[in-house]
Specification:
By secondary structure, this protein is an alpha/beta fold. The chain has two domains: 128 residues, Aspartate Aminotransferase, domain 1, CATH 3.90.1150.10; 234 residues, Type I PLP-dependent aspartate aminotransferase-like (Major domain) (Aspartate Aminotransferase, domain 2, 3-Layer(aba) Sandwich), CATH 3.40.640.10. Helices cover 41% and strands 15% of the residues. It has 15 helices and 13 strands. The strands form three sheets. It has a seven-stranded mixed β-sheet with strand order 3-9-8-7-6-4-5, sandwiched between helices. The chain has a three-stranded mixed β-sheet with strand order 1-2-11. Bound molecules: pyridoxal-5'-phosphate. The site of pyridoxal-5'-phosphate (PLP) has 14 residues, from helix 5.
């Protein structure tokens, strides 16, 4: 027995336990750019319905050109954090562009939204304060809350009576922060921000919304939940990612009240102790947001797709969660069935993912379909056809 043997045995047992529980995550290898049609390493060409590539920008030639231009003019990497020597004119320009997009006062960039959420609570709140969090909030919010000493309250997903109860109890604390995802990634529902905002006024709380799945998608012109609920400029903290609708590369942000952003620049650990975003990503980010300000074509196309897809799937007899975004949950309830169905769909050239416990509650297994402006109508028809064929085969529909 050497020093590693004992630990190695433990790791192998853990991995085996993951496998036996049917929870082992295999990675499918893609040998093409991310897009609506992708080529897998085995040569199979499939239609992709499981990327967060909502506006279809991941392989957009103009974004690639903007990234190339920024890289040529400002280099490959920064080799520094922002406050030492890692802030270029481009970083300030992107921060301003994001603030203009959301109608906020200022923005702070991070390497990811995971970092933005990881670094937002601890600098702002102490053990005297309260965080009131939706139970279905993203893992990065949960982790961020854990890093903060504030008293924690949780309310059932989008359940306003429960939120009100928690807010009443939380009157014991000095400040209260309500935090919610804008769009919940497993059901595609939008947080009822109008009611959340109302309760925040009544119970003297501030509000934070994670717009990762809603930015570019929700609201008349894709400005997210604050646009949808007519609350532009009213929500104190928004976080989000450049890794989904906005080109899908990498990068996160917190945007909102200027004093909040200013304090985060002084104290937020993922900002202070992690590298600056590279010029290519920043340049393409600026380009993307400006492009989206000019035209609503992509978002309109995405919405038409979502409506069409949901209606056709309902007609075919599938059980679909009511969606208000580009996420469409095809409910199967049974974990094994969701895996079988996803794998049969791939044989038909449709790449979708089955989700089961612990990602969704027990007995709530499903296939999540994510639509993209990069899809064409014929792609949707092909997907619906495959669902119908396999659905009949597996007796999910008649
Ligand atoms: C995807 C996602 C994140 C993480 O974003 P990254 O930029 O990929 O780290 C955070 N919050 C929510 C709600 C998300 O959906």
């Amino acid at each position: 027995m050497n020093n590693y043997t004992h630990f190695q045995k433990y790791l192998m047992d853990e991995i085996l336990a993951i496998r036996s529980a049917g929870l082992y995550k295999e990675e499918r290898i893609i040998a093409s750019p991310q897009s609506a049609k992708i080529r897998l390493q085995n040569g199979q060409e499939v239609l992709n319905f499981c990327a967060n590539n909502y506006l279809g920008l991941a392989d957009h030639p103009e974004l690639i050109a903007a990234a190339e231009k920024a890289m040529k003019e400002r280099g490959y990497g920064m080799s520094s954090v922002r406050f030492i020597c890692g802030t270029q004119d481009l970083h300030k320009e992107l921060e301003k562009t994001i603030a203009d997009f959301f109608g906020t006062e200022d923005t702070i960039l991070y390497a990811s939204c995971f970092d933005a959420n990881g670094g937002v609570f601890e600098p702002l709140l102490t053990e005297e304060d309260a965080i009131i969090s939706d139970t279905l909030n993203h893992a990065s919010i949960i982790d961020g809350v854990r890093l903060c000493k504030a008293v924690r309250y949780r309310y059932a997903n989008a359940h306003m009576e429960d939120l009100e109860t928690q807010l009443q109890t939380a009157q014991a604390q000095r400040f209260r922060l309500i935090v919610t995802d804008g769009v919940f990634s497993m059901d595609g529902n939008v947080a009822p921000l109008d009611q959340i905002y109302g309760l925040a006024q009544k119970y003297n709380a501030i509000v934070m919304v994670d717009e990762s799945h809603s930015a570019g998608v929700v609201g008349k012109t894709g400005k997210g939940t604050t646009e949808q609920f007519n609350l532009r400029g009213k929500i104190e903290i928004l976080t989000g990612t450049l890794g989904k609708a906005f080109g899908g590369a990498i990068g996160g942000y917190t945007t909102g009240k200027k004093e909040i952003i200013e304090l985060l620049r002084q104290r937020s650990r993922p900002y202070l102790f992690s590298n600056s975003l590279p010029p290519s990503v920043v340049g393409a980010g600026i380009y993307t947001l400006r492009m989206l300000e000019k035209s609503n074509e992509l978002q309109d196309k995405l919405h038409a797709h979502a409506t069409y897809f949901v209606n056709k799937m309902l007609e075919a007899g599938f059980d679909i969660k009511p969606t208000q975004s580009a996420i469409c949950a095809v409910m199967l309830y049974d974990a094994q069935l969701s895996q079988t169905m996803a794998s049969r769909m791939l044989d038909e050239g449709i790449y979708v993912t089955g989700f089961s416990y612990p990602v969704v509650p027990k007995g709530q297994a499903r296939i999540r379909v994510q639509l993209s402006a990069k899809h064409e109508k014929a792609d949707l028809d092909q997907c619906i056809e495959a669902f119908t064929k396999i659905g009949k085969e597996l007796s999910v529909i008649k």
